[in-house]
Design goal:
It is a single chain. The two termini are about 40 Å apart. The protein is an alpha+beta fold and about 650 residues long. Among the domains are: about 140 residues, Rossmann fold, CATH 3.40.50; about 100 residues, Dna Ligase, domain 1, CATH 3.30.1490. The radius of gyration is 26 Å and the shape is globular. The strands form eight sheets. A ten-stranded mixed β-sheet has the order 3-2-1-4-11-12-23-26-24-25, with helices on both faces. Strands 13, 14, 15, 18 and 21 form a five-stranded mixed β-sheet that branches. Strands 6-5-9-10 form a four-stranded parallel β-sheet, sandwiched between helices. The protein contains 16 helices and 33 strands. Helices cover about 30% and strands about 25% of the residues.
């Protein structure tokens, strides 16, 4: 029995995946002060014995967003002490001269310079033993003392000898302080991104270590065989490895949803998907192309450059708990502030009094006050309406339904922009894809978002409110390995490529025995400032070149075959796939709606049929307007759309 637990901002979801692929779902309210309370509450709600627990955690994300990590110091090459402040000399917002980037995680007074220098060809200024002793003493003299150290020397990705010596001396002198070394964290070029990623790693390690250590002890005490943690790349690591890769947990939770979306896409025969995970606090847009989640190795989290392998995620503040407000000019805004789990939206009846997206959906009667969301949460329509009225007149009306329509329109516009950023902005046409909305609130907005992007197909997955937890339960064991390798493709031989990949392949075999080893390469035209990652299926430079030209043309619309192509970085993914869930359920027998109720759509009052989402029989067709009410989420099929229930339990919604 494998169990995936996704701790969200509002609810904690659990999916138990048996050896035969059958699925069991639980949902409880998150405890913000201590996420493990909600996690174990979800576990205790399931009487099933657990062999493997896979956890998607927001501990790293929240530490970066809230700036609640460790006090750190940075050790770097003399002359480069200001690198984190200089960044790339770009603006945080191109046309906003008053906006600045978030400050680095380290104070300028806690940066220690090292008199040494390496260049592309080797040592330029030797690192003497006296300098090593001086640097160790300088770090020890910092007051207050740092809780973790980041070491990022110039060109350590290619010549790591100086960094290794310095890190060894620091670890010997300061055995109780975690030390992140750039040649271990991110051994690839680009000094700013490597230094920034290394400081993020150091900043997170103490907090992640304490959290996972406590969690692992509690897991063992409950007799659970094994704990694994989801990483940003969509794979899992054991706690010991996750502690030394703390920065790779920054997108731990959202990555599980993309894995779950890929599995649903495979079950219905769709390989190209735009996904939207709309939870209680935020909405996460992502992309699956060719049956594989699209990766992004050069993103930012909370304004901090983090260049580790990760599933592409575009997060916006448009969750069910996102608070609506009027700005100084009287314009309606949704988020970024969220009501979270405590007190939650006003309609939860837990003391919240500010209007949220959930209150709006309830006022439009998309949600049913008689239908429990999860746990002991019941919806109070009067409390939600009172909160909506506090906004005053919105969109020409002061009634709750008019205000609610404005709120959902703003939230939908925010999510549509996020979907465009992960598709259109990358040269991909969303009209050729299917939209897969999930999370507790995502399926309510599927038709509206699909229309905004010109899409004709929507996939409402089985158990949409717990799809992230399902992705965790079935996630693969995965280790990502990187190495810098700057060479023109033209001068490379098959032997050169094989020799370059050999150390990474050996390391992959040792970390994931009997796993699959997938090779990739970052390539670019000479002089470009960005790379394109392509799969490598053979030690053949010509095939690599052809793959790069095809991918570059698809992504950017051009590919000059006469230009010099450089191989920049090597990547190896060591992978052992998880089990495939069996979505089909013989207990799905419902073929007719259970009732109907009036709802408000685009300002008009219409009668919608109400269906039991979790019990729909295969082959049933559903014409909009219709409400599909499930135990973990509710979906909305708008007029002009028709849904057909797939044998796996997903509902394929098409334009009529």
């Amino acid at each position: 029995m494998r169990v995936g637990v996704d701790v969200g901002g509002t609810f904690t979801d659990l999916v138990a995946l048996a050896e035969d692929g059958t699925i069991d779902v639980r949902k409880v309210v998150t405890t913000p002060d201590d996420p493990t309370v909600g996690l174990f509450k979800a576990l205790d709600a399931s009487p099933l014995p657990i062999d493997v627990l896979i956890h998607g955690t927001t501990i790293a994300t929240n530490a970066l967003l809230e700036r609640r990590g460790a006090r750190i110091a940075l050790v770097t090459t003399k002359g480069f002490e200001d690198l984190l402040w200089l960044r790339r000399q770009d603006r945080a917002a191109l046309y906003d001269l008053a906006r600045d980037h978030p400050p680095p995680l380290v104070a300028r007074s806690d940066v220690v310079a090292v008199a040494e220098r390496t260049g592309p060809e080797g040592v330029l200024e030797p690192l003497g033993q006296e300098e090593v002793v001086r640097v160790v003493a300088a770090v020890r003299a910092l007051a207050p003392p740092p809780e973790a150290l980041a070491v990022a020397l110039l060109f350590a990705f290619r010549h790591a000898e100086h960094e290794r010596r310095l890190v060894a001396a620091l670890r010997e002198a300061l055995p109780d302080i975690p030390i992140a070394a750039s040649h271990e964290v991110l051994p690839v070029f680009r000094e700013f991104e490597r230094a920034s990623t290394t400081t993020v790693e150091a900043y997170l390690r103490p907090k992640v270590s304490a959290y996972l250590g406590r969690l692992e002890r509690d897991v063992r005490a409950r007799g659970i065989g094994m704990l694994r943690v989801m990483t940003s790349s969509g794979g899992t690591l054991p706690p010991g490895a996750a502690v030394t890769r703390a920065a790779s947990l920054a997108l731990s939770g959202p990555a599980g949803g993309v894995v779950g979306a890929r599995l649903v896409g495979a079950a219905v025969g769709l390989a190209d998907l735009l996904t939207l995970d709309m939870g209680g606090t935020s909405a996460d847009a992502s992309l699956v192309t060719g049956g594989t989640p699209l990766g992004d190795g050069g993103g930012t989290i909370a304004g901090l450059a983090l260049a580790l392998p990760a599933v592409l995620i575009e997060t916006v503040s448009a969750g069910g708990g996102s608070i609506a407000r009027l700005d100084e000019g009287g314009a309606l805004k949704v988020g970024p502030e969220s009501a979270g789990a405590v007190p939650g939206p006003a309609c939860y009846g837990r003391g919240g009094d500010r209007p949220t997206v959930t209150d709006a959906c309830l006022a439009l009667r998309w949600l049913d006050a008689q239908h429990p969301l999860a746990d002991a949460v019941r919806l109070d329509r009067d409390a939600g309406a009172h909160a909506l009225r506090s906004l005053g007149a919105v969109g020409g009306g002061s009634e709750p339904a008019a205000i609610a329509a404005g709120i959902v329109a703003v939230a939908a516009a925010v999510m549509a922009r996020a979907l465009k950023r992960v598709s259109v902005a990358r040269g991909l046409d969303p009209r050729r894809m299917a939209l897969l909305p999930f999370g507790g609130a995502g399926p309510l907005f599927g038709c509206q978002l699909a229309e905004a992007l010109g899409m004709r197909t929507i996939v409402i997955p089985p158990h949409p409110g717990a799809l992230s937890a399902l992705g965790l339960a079935s996630a693969a064991e995965r280790v990502d390995l990187l190495a810098s390798f700057h060479r023109p493709l033209e001068g490379l031989s098959s032997r050169d490529l094989g020799a370059a990949y050999a150390p990474l392949l050996e390391e992959g075999r040792s970390q994931v025995p009997d796993g699959a080893l997938l090779r990739y390469a970052d390539c670019r035209f000479a002089g470009q400032g960005y790379e394109v990652t392509v799969p490598v299926t053979a030690d053949d430079p010509q095939r690599m070149r052809d793959a790069f030209l095809v991918e570059h043309r698809a992504r950017f619309g051009h590919a000059g075959s006469d230009q010099t192509i450089e191989l920049v970085n090597l990547r190896v993914v060591a992978l052992r796939e998880g089990p495939v869930p069996r979505f089909a359920d013989a207990r799905r027998v419902v073929q007719r709606p259970g009732a109907s109720r009036p709802i408000t759509l685009r300002g008009a009052r219409v009668s919608a049929s109400v269906w039991a989402l979790d019990d729909l029989a295969a082959g049933v067709t559903i014409a909009g307007p219709a409400i599909l009410a499930g135990r973990d989420a509710t979906a909305l099929v708008e007029p002009g759309w028709r849904g057909t229930v797939h044998p796996c339990g997903a509902v394929l919604v098409e334009r009529t």
